């Protein structure tokens, strides 16, 4: 049973005084029954570990009660769960012995249903009446079921706990292929978003070569190969290494990478090692 009282008076003062509200619960002498309407109920059936069945009820008096019953005896109240300070609007059993309740006091509470009324957790994320709740069936295998309903989602809803943020960066080294004369100035280990495409790495190599390596041709596999792709025409006053782009290909584990492949895909399906990714580059071999 709940009462809300207020106290405080202006007492002739010009300054307004803040109204104070006090919420309290009055318990009847007979604690074996509810003193207001019952809003919800759930049943815990007997199991191998316990041959006793229980009925749980939630009431407008702010309490939940556990009723023991069987075929040979009349039901009786075996425990009262007190912590809510307003109507209990819904209750449901989760798992083997967890009772979950929600209330107009804006909280959701979990209880040890087989105890004498122990509240194990209070969730205060709501800012208004909590009028209903639903409990996911406890039949997840963590494999196929998780594809449809990830367990991290349930953990976030019930425990307000988000999964750790995945690292969106990927570290890698960029080296010339063995025997290649192409050199690019790098600062050791590089870092880039996991979704970065291989053609972006190619552009990086090209920019470094164009700015830092004024070479017209390179010897690859014993024979000279053109460094620059295109028709060979240069704008007036420009130098070859400033305007024309060399034809470069990126490799991993001696496999030429498709330009649209992401670094994350390369690491998982081609590199296949826990160490930092190693990429190689070379002037594209004419085919």
Q: How would you characterize this protein structure?
A:
There is one protein chain. The protein is of the alpha+beta class and 287 residues long. The chain has 2 domains: 31-134, no CATH class; 169-283, Ubiquitin-like (UB roll) (Roll). It is 15% helix and 35% strand. It is built from 5 helices and 17 strands. The strands form 5 sheets. Strands 12-11-17-15-16 form a 5-stranded mixed β-sheet. A 4-stranded antiparallel β-sheet has the order 3-4-5-6, with no helix packed on it. The protein has a 4-stranded antiparallel β-sheet with strand order 7-8-9-10, with no helix packed on it. The protein is elongated and about 95 Å long. Keywords: Repeat, WD repeat. WD repeats lie at residues 81-112. InterPro entries: WD40/YVTN_repeat-like_dom_sf, WD40_repeat_dom_sf, WD40_rpt, WDR48, WDR48/Bun107.
Beta strand %: 35-45%
Q: What is the CATH topology classification name of the largest domain?
A: Ubiquitin-like (UB roll)
Give me the strand/helix succession: EEEEEEEEEEHHEEHEEHEEHE
Task: Tell me the name of the CATH homologous superfamily of the largest domain.
Answer: Phosphatidylinositol 3-kinase Catalytic Subunit, Chain A, domain 1
* Helix fraction by DSSP (H/I, runs of at least 4): 10-25%
Can you tell me the overall shape?
Answer: elongated
| Protein structure class | alpha+beta
What is the terminal-to-terminal distance? 87 Å
Specify Rg, calculated over alpha carbons.
Answer: 35 Å
What is the number of helical segments per DSSP (H or I, 4+ residues)?
A: 5
Name of the top-level CATH class of the largest domain: Alpha Beta
Largest sheet features = 5 strands, mixed
- Total count of strands: 17
CATH architecture of the largest domain: Roll
Number of domains: 2
WD repeats: 81-112
Keywords: Repeat, WD repeat
InterPro entries: WD40/YVTN_repeat-like_dom_sf (IPR015943), WD40_repeat_dom_sf (IPR036322), WD40_rpt (IPR001680), WDR48 (IPR051246), WDR48/Bun107 (IPR021772)
């Amino acid at each position: 049973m709940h009462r809300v009282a207020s106290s405080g008076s202006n007492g002739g003062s010009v300054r307004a005084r803040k109204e104070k509200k006090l919420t309290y619960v009055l318990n009847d002498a007979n604690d074996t029954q509810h003193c207001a309407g019952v809003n919800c109920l759930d049943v815990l059936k007997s199991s191998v570990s316990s041959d006793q069945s229980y009925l749980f009820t939630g009431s407008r008096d702010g309490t939940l009660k556990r009723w023991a019953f069987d075929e040979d005896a009349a039901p009786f109240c075996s425990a009262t769960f007190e912590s809510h300070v307003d109507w209990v609007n819904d209750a449901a059993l989760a798992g083997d012995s967890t009772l979950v309740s929600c209330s107009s006091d804006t909280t959701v509470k979990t209880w040890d249903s087989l105890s004498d009324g122990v509240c194990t957790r209070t969730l205060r994320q709501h800012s208004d009446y909590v009028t209903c709740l639903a409990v996911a069936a406890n039949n997840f295998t963590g494999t196929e079921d998780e594809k449809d309903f990830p367990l991290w989602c349930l953990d976030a809803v019930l425990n307000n706990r988000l999964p750790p943020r995945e690292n969106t960066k990927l570290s890698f080294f960029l080296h010339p292929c063995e025997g290649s004369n192409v050199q690019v100035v790098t600062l050791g280990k590089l870092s880039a978003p996991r979704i970065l495409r291989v053609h972006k790495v190619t552009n990086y190599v090209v920019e470094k070569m164009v700015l830092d390596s004024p070479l017209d041709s390179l010897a690859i596999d014993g024979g000279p190969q053109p460094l620059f792709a295109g028709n060979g025409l240069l704008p007036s006053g420009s130098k070859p290494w400033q305007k024309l782009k060399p034809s470069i290909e990126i490799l991993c584990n001696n496999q030429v990478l498709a330009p649209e492949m992401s670094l994350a895909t390369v690491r998982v399906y081609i590199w296949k090692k826990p160490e930092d990714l190693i990429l190689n580059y070379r002037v594209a071999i004419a085919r």
